[in-house]
Amino acid sequence: MNNYKKVFLNTKSSFSINEKVDIILSPELYWVHIFEIPLKTKKDILNVLPTYFEDYFDVEGYKYYTLKLEGEQFLCFAYDESLIAQKIHDSNLKLSQVQNIYFAQNEFSSLNSFQIDEQYLAYHDNILLKIPKNIADINSATHIDIDIIELSEHSISVNKTNKYIDTKSVYILSFILILISVVNFGKISLVNSAIEDIKNNKKQIKKDYNMLPTMLQTKSVIKTLEKKQITQVKLRDNLKKSFKSQESIRRVSFRDGEVSYE
Amino acid sequence: MNKINPLYILALCFSIAIYSILNLKTTNEQLETIKDQNNKYLILATKYNSLNKAWGDSRDIQKVCEKILKVSRIKSSKITKNGLTMKISIEELTKKQLDMFINKILNETITIIRFSFTKNSLEMEVGL
Asked: Do A181 and B47 touch (CB under 8 A)?
């Protein structure tokens, strides 16, 4: 397991860290509640969680996370991803630095009350709460060194893309691009097949027209035959003209392309 | 386990799409070029074929000449083959026979090397 630097993120955090970090969220940055839900799968529970939380706050834009406790009891979290991303940004961290994000609720369960970064936190009915400084029992609150905390396996992630495009849109766009690619590769395959057909057609033409093996030979023969044709047509034209103009000919001869009369 | 950044997936899909578009463009250009070459080859083949049929060595020139002699009703003819040429000598021709023979022979695509005639005789040498 990677041991990244751990930071505790609250609404007033400010860091000057360049390395990668694991973030533990202050209770200020998420909602947590234990619900009894008569469902078995996590997927079903995550689907119904908005209806459970909507009694407490406007659930628009929230995401959810859940852990099974006992029987039908579930520890349920609701968090605003954009708020967390904003707080990460406000604390001088970059989203690309963030490896995993943990809820403080799950990471300090061995302690009853403690102090971390000027915040007093305590478990009450198994829920970790932020205690106002004026009512906190400052003397009994242990000051925690966050780096010695063993992190749990219960982490979330925030959208690291950007604020202009959400993950769902990225996947839809990716799907469309893949679809375009598949169509294009299909077309390429058809065009390649057409190219092969034309190549075969050329071979057939060569066979049907009794072409010579090379283009050079073919062109040379065509040139010779064209020359022969021109000469022979010229001869025939000359002869025909002669027949029309000469009324009485005793002898007509043709040799080496020249016609002579006697 | 770290998730792959969706933007990387988008970039990969975008690259694949661009590659496919460029590849399709190149393949289409190849098709057009090959079509054009094939058309030119067909024109050349047609030309070669027609010229070869007309002036090439594929035909039996002797048979063509004998046929013309027969059609012109010429009986007193002598045909002599000499290597790549053939000599035809005709004596005692009437004007009608001469006209018919000359007309027919000149309309055939025969390579005439030498050709001479009088009012009642004809001599010609043709290429085989």
From this structure: no
